[in-house]
């Protein structure tokens, strides 16, 4: 028999991967859209760059704060559920053991074996057993607010830096097409990287992120052009 080894599952990446892809995607789309909107209003290249930098800083802070608050809310809910479970285990451990056993029965385990499994798991760590099998809380999926906030802020900044780099290297006469095409290529690359890291197919995620990025940039550029003429 081969020696047992720890397997690395893709589901373990859910927490940081979601925050990272969201941050980078938002960084590219929001900054590129902002740049194109201002450029379409006939602003100077320096004004466009300044606007983009301000958008990067504000967006990174917003992403970090938003992720921290939302994931902290999830963490608070998890802790509240665990606290209630601890009280229930202290008040009526036999009922809780039977409740756990019935969960296994519902999954196809025979009643006697399910009760024995519940007994042994609760003898080792009753709270962990109920957290995992009754509440769906595990080490893999537990909320990590600081990790999510830092990942979102960092990846937003990296994503936002991409269209800003295009502004720096583009002549003002072709700034709009260069930023547009370059940002869409960055989005397509991000979609492919996210799909690869998550073990999904490449085509659908890449097309999805590219389509919505193009829509956002086109809409913002159109608004900039209209208001630029009015003002």
Topology order in helix (H) and strand (E) letters: HHHHHHH
Percent helix, as a range, is: over 70%
Contiguous runs where pLDDT drops below 50 for at least 5 residues:
none
Strand segment count: 0
**Tally of separate helices:** 7
What is the general shape?
A: elongated
Strand content: under 5%
User: Structural class of the secondary elements?
Assistant: mainly alpha
Query: What is the CA-atom radius of gyration, in angstroms?
Result: 25 Å
Distance between the termini: 77 Å
Largest sheet: none
Mean pLDDT: 82
Keywords: Membrane, Transmembrane, Transmembrane helix
Main location: membrane
Subcellular location: Endomembrane system
Pfam families: VIT1
Keyphrases for this structure?
mainly alpha, VIT family protein, 0% strand
Summarize the entry for a quick read.
The protein is 82% helix and 0% strand.
Describe the structure.
The chain has seven helices and no strands. Helix 2 (45-91) packs across helix 3 (93-106), helix 5 (145-169) runs antiparallel to helix 6 and helix 6 packs antiparallel against helix 7. The termini are far apart. The protein is mainly alpha-helical and 231 residues long. The mean pLDDT is 82. 82% of the residues lie in helices and 0% in strands.
């Amino acid at each position: 028999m081969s020696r047992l080894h720890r397997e690395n599952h893709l589901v373990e990446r859910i927490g940081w991967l979601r925050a990272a892809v969201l941050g980078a995607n938002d960084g590219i789309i929001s900054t590129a859209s902002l740049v194109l909107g201002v450029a379409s209003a006939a602003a100077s290249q320096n004004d466009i760059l300044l606007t983009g930098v301000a958008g990067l800083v504000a967006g990174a802070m917003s992403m970090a704060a938003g992720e921290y608050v939302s994931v902290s809310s999830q963490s608070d809910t998890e802790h509240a559920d665990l606290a209630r479970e601890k009280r229930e285990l202290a008040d009526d451990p036999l009922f809780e053991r039977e409740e756990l056993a019935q969960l296994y029965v519902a999954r196809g385990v025979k009643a006697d074996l399910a009760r024995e499994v519940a007994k042994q798991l609760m003898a080792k760590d009753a709270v962990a057993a109920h957290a995992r099998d009754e509440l769906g809380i595990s080490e893999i999926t537990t909320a990590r607010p600081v990790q999510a906030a830092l990942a979102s802020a960092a990846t937003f900044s990296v994503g936002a830096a991409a269209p800003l780099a295009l502004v720096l290297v583009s002549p003002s006469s072709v700034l709009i097409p260069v930023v547009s095409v370059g940002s869409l290529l960055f989005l397509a690359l991000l979609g492919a990287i996210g799909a690869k890291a998550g073990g999904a197919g490449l085509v659908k995620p890449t097309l999805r992120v590219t389509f919505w990025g193009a829509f956002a940039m086109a809409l913002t550029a159109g608004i900039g052009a209209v208001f630029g003429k009015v003002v």
